[in-house]
Amino acid sequence: MQDITRKKIFFPLNPAFRNYLRLYEREIKLPVSYEELRYYEYGFPLYDKQGKDTLWETVVYPQNMVAQLHAGLKRVYSIFKAGGDQAAEEHLHIERIDYCTFGNSHPFRVKVVNNYNEVYDYFYVKIADASRLYGLELEHILSPYWMNFLVDGNTLIEEHIAGVPGDQFITDYLDRPEFNPKRIAKEFVKFNERCFVRLLGDMRSYNFVFDITPDFDDVQFRIRAIDFDQQFYEGKKTLYMPQFFKDNRVFVELAMQHLNAETVKQYQQEERSLIARRIKVQRHRIKDLRDVIMSDRVSFPEKIQQLGEELALHYEDPVFAKCRTMGEIIERSLKRLLVKSLR
Predict the structure, then answer these.
(1) Mind listing the pLDDT tens digit for each residue in 191-214?
(2) Structural domain boundaries of the chain?
(3) Confidence of residue 341 (pLDDT cuts 50, 70, 90)
(4) 17, 94, 130, 315: which could join 70 in a potential S-S bond, CB 3.0 to 4.6 Å?
């Protein structure tokens, strides 16, 4: 079992990071805060369709709070999804607010329903931890996916990422005859590489989802991270490699069974080339983010030293061992991609 810090420290957003978020329209005044949502009266367990405890609880608020709170949450949703257009708010209602006591972030999940067609959507209200925000922003820049999130003070509003949770995929989907195991193995290799290059840790199976898309001759798979708390925080190299978590062992076995070493290297190089291309396209934004991260404190000296030394050995690159911040480490990791892509 990987040795992960059980209670991750929350790091506040420094002024430079807030300036970056304002520059790229991530920070905006919101009508509801995380702190306000904590004033619920009581909660009761939320069960899934099979009657299993989801580890979330539905919370109930005092009657004198409900109208104003729901109006504020609908306003948040319109800012988040429609650029602030209020026209649709009268056709929405807040059906449920759930609270999760599992894990570090203790998020609230808000279910919004359209009164006309009963189509629903979710968004999350969380504490604005710097590690998570760096993780979301790097996902936005370096991955195939655009990330939607907003910040106001200590409050983070985050989109719901749809997909089948990895642990559920293992039990209910993995052995379906219409699914090509080679495609699943390929996507896990590429996901593993993305996480390692950008130093996103703790990608156990319940921290990522499968996006399943039927194509004209096969089914395509994409793996998306849904938890960004462990962005360049821990010191152990393997914590940034999903292949080393026992929860993901089945995907590793799938890759060993269906992919040879040359194919794995090919997929790793493909993913690194795509990340390098995204860095070039977003070079101004990644430079602005780099300038903020370089001097920010988002981990501890002993973890930074350990990770730098382990990456120096892994890559045979002594520069990593000289890094004094996580920002310097991630910069070196990304620079290696750019240098190789120019050869």
Answers:
(1) 999 999 999 999 999 999 999 998
(2) 31-127, 164-341
(3) low
(4) 94
Mark out the alpha helices in 151-216 (DSSP H runs): 166-172, 181-198
116 neighbors 91 (Cβ within 8 angstroms): yes
Cα–Cα distance between 308 and 318 in angstroms, integer? Answer: 9
Tokens of 209: 């989802």
- Count Cβ atoms within 10 A of the Cβ of residue 119 and give its class: 0-12 exposed, 13-18 middle, 19 or more buried: exposed
Instruction: Please write the tens of the pLDDT for every residue from 4-37.
Output: 555 788 899 999 999 999 999 999 999 999 999 9
**Backbone torsions φ then ψ of 237, nearest 5 degrees:** -55, -45
Given a contact cutoff of 8 angstroms between Cβ atoms, the answer to whether 332 and 317 are in contact is yes
Closest CA to 209 of 197, 199, 200, 221: 221
Q: What's at 230, amino acid-wise?
A: Q
pTM equals: 0.92
Measure the CA–CA gap between 338 and 273, rounded to whole angstroms. Answer: 9
The span from the CA of 174 to the CA of 212, in Å, is 12
Two structure tokens written together for 294? 């370089």
SS3 of residue 50 by DSSP: coil
Helices marked H in 39-180 — which ranges? 63-82, 130-142, 166-172
Tokens 């290799």 identify what position?
Answer: 189
Q: How far apart are CA 259 and CA 261, in angstroms?
A: 7
